[in-house]
Amino acid sequence: MRTLSTDEVLINVTPMESRVALIENGVVQELFIERTAKRGLVGNIYRGKVVRVLPGMQAAFIDIGLERTAFLHINEVRIAPKGLRPQTIQECMHDGMSVTVQVMKDMMGSKGARLTMDLSIPSRYLVYMPYSDQIGVSQKIEDEPERERLKQWIRRLRETSPDELGGGFIIRTVAEGAHDAELDHDMAFLLKLWRHVRERAIYTNGPALIYEELPLSLRTLRDIVGASVLKVLIDSRETYAKAIEFVREFVPGLESRLEHYPGERPLFDLYNVEDDLQKALQRKVLLKSGGYLIIDQTEAMTTVDVNTGSFVGSRNLEDTVFKTNLEATHAIARHLRLRNLGGIIILDFIDMQEEDHRSQVLRSLEKMLSRDHAKTKITQVSELGLVEMTRKRTRESLEHLLCESCPTCAGRGTVKTAETVCFEIFREILREARAYDAAHGYSVVANQRVIDRLLGEESAAVADLEHFVGKPIRFQVEAMYHQEQYDVVLL
Predict the structure, then answer these.
(1) Whether the predicted model's global pTM rises above the 0.70 cut
(2) 32, 144, 350, 370: most buried, per Cβ within 10 A?
(3) Could you tell me the residue ranges of all domains in the chain?
(4) What architecture does CATH give domain 45-119?
(5) Could you tell me the sign of the dihedral formed by the alpha carbons of 183, 187, 190, 193, in that order?
(6) How many Å from the N-terminal Cα to the C-terminal Cα in the chain?
(7) How many DSSP H helices and E strands does the chain contain?
(8) Where would I find the beta strands (DSSP E) of 281-356?
(9) What is the C-alpha to C-alpha distance for residues 470 and 456, in angstroms, rounded to an integer?
(10) Which helix (H) or strand (E) holds 241?
């Protein structure tokens, strides 16, 4: 997480979970949710054991003590302490070997966590990379004199303490304008923390956790809350006390903007966050003009389809299409952040005839995405109105976090019609009649809608089937059965 241009940050804490909402101009733009029993792993450092080396994939599976082994690719391997990169996975990894690794992507679906040996430890203003010699400054710090001041500060410290300050640093966005004393404090904290991590790694064989990232509420104060944040509201008195203690130590200027919210009305209800959260789980997103988006998330990619709906415009079809697509760019950018959608994303805009309109829509999309903290990359609008884009994914989407596949449709999003199930039942009875001798006929146990159709629209077909098999067919409703579920019982 990096500093975002936002007005307010809401932190809702219960014993079961913590939730953070970022509010820009009174509108919810991003949500973070962390379940107490399923805290995210990104940033955690483990001492792990190699369980399998895969020369064909140039990767290794590492046991770090989780339910699934984690994945480490050759591109993420560093040979400590010099930070050298090996040519092949075989020359640096073997089964049973102990390695120090950091989680860069959480477990998603059936995939294990993604690991790196390029360790990095963040603080308020800096990120320390012990196996790198890079000095970088956040691209969001655009003032050249300020960028140079921050680089000179690092170089100066390196010259005075060359042995102590081995490794690289990235200067974060919130460091813009920070005093040298604040930066010095941050540096001292990072180096002390790294010494602790390194010592634990030496004396731990693994698999074991040796450094755990901060909980969501404190990560928010460290990573998200910048100068543009007017206030941070926290509805838990205990979390508020921990937050005050944390900012006094690491972010002294932030204390005056922290507020405890003691109100009886839930904090997220007060800002309509709950309503937006529910809308973020729906396929259909309504636009103010009357148009709408259809958002479908699959294993391979996410698709967003733009439709005019009831919007008829005021001049002509091209004008209506252009205005709908333009409005859609705002909603798309917001919902990518709100739902935390990542990976490959296909945007199906309504076909536009004029090249100028396509260019304006693309520029609007780029402008809206520029506010996103996640790295995005987009292509030109094709003749069919399609835009291919990618958004960096480091954690599970809102849908994957809060939902599971429907047990009835198994994630398809549709169920067989009652008519289709009736015809399946007829075929099953014919199979049973050929294979077994049912002395007293057959009993069909099924969902209410299926039984109603068998006794209604399909009653003539049932009579013909009874005549054909020469046995009676009885029906029984089972309220617990879903529409596709049925049994044919021999009597």
Answers:
(1) yes
(2) 32
(3) 1-40+231-277, 45-119, 280-397, 418-490
(4) Beta Barrel (2.40)
(5) negative
(6) 64
(7) 12, 24
(8) 284-286, 292-297, 302-307, 343-348
(9) 21
(10) helix 237-250
**How many Cα atoms occupy the beta-carbon half-sphere of 142 within 13 Å?**
1
Pick the CATH number of 418-490 from 2.10.270.10, 3.40.1260.20, 3.30.70.360, 2.140.10.30: 3.40.1260.20
Match domain 1-40+231-277 to its CATH number in 3.30.420, 2.60.40, 3.40.50, 3.30.200.
3.30.420
Which residue type, as a one-letter code, is found at position 180? D
The dihedral region occupied by 239, where left means phi > 0, alpha psi between -120 and 50, and beta the remainder, is alpha
**Type and span of the H or E element at 333:** helix 317-338
CA nearest to 216, candidates 18, 448, 490 = 18
CA atoms within 13 A on the CB side of 269: 4
Q: 430, 469 in Cβ contact below 8 A? A: yes
C-beta separation of 279 from 285 below 8 A:
yes
The answer to whether 13 touches 236, Cβ cutoff 8 Å, is: yes
Mean pLDDT by 10 residues, the chain (491 residues): 64 94 90 86 93 93 92 87 77 90 86 91 90 86 90 82 72 86 85 89 89 91 81 95 90 88 92 92 91 90 88 73 92 94 92 87 91 83 80 84 84 89 95 88 95 94 93 93 93 86
Q: By the 8 A CB rule, do 295 and 335 touch? A: yes
Alpha carbons 249 and 37: distance in angstroms, whole number: 28
> What is the C-alpha separation between 111 and 99, in angstroms, rounded?
20
445-465 pLDDT per residue, tens: 999 999 999 999 999 999 999
